[in-house]
Amino acid sequence: MPKFKYFNVDLYQANNGGGKDNDQQATVTWALPFQIGSAEFLYDGFLDASTKADDHAAETNFTSQLKWNMGKQLFHTKKPVYVGFEYAHWKNKFGIDGVTEKNPSFLLKAHF
What we know:
Blueprint: E1 6-14, E2 23-36, E3 39-50, E4 59-69, H1 70-75, E5 81-91, E6 101-110
Antiparallel strand pairs: 1-2, 2-3, 3-4, 4-5, 5-6
């Protein structure tokens, strides 16, 4: 995909074992770097979607991060030091119908 650092789509057949019903899952992952002026940003994340089965509901987990590389701009570091936001939205968490988690977070992430 043009402009993306990476963009992946994976399809799975889950063999859950332990007496649990099998299901299918699709996972999309991405990283999109961009600049505003001299400021460097990165928008990355994933989306998991799985099918329902007799013993669990279909579920989706969308988690993404929007980060600014403050290390390069403020401290002139070679490796990124990000500050930003993360949002996670997990519908039918762990396949439990009606259990939905919504979590906004601030983040500070340093690479060594």
